[in-house]
Amino acid sequence: MPPDHRQVLRVLVAWGLAGFGLMAWGLVWLEPWPTIFGATLVVMARLWRSDRFDRLWERAGHGPA
To answer: Which of 29, 35, 52, 63 could be a cystine partner for 58, CB 3.0 to 4.6 Å?
Structure first.
């Protein structure tokens, strides 16, 4: 895996963990805003991560012709 992808993936994993922490905190304290914001962070980090893997796949020559 190229170093630029590895660095971005580490950031996205950190965002996902932060979102999970916010979501868990919001669920424990029954607060809607941290729960919604945390879930949004988790989903956005996951979608962005999937996009990065798609770019890596295309870079390896397996993408559309």
So the answer is: 63
d(CA 60, CA 28): 43
Q: What is the pLDDT of residues 23-62, one digit of tens each?
A: 999 999 999 999 999 999 999 999 999 999 888 888 888 8
Find, among 13, 4, 21, the residue nearest to 44 by Cα: 13
Q: Is the pTM of this model over 0.90?
A: no
Q: What residues contact residue 26 under an 8 Å CB cut-off, 6+ apart?
A: 32, 33, 34, 35, 36, 37, 38
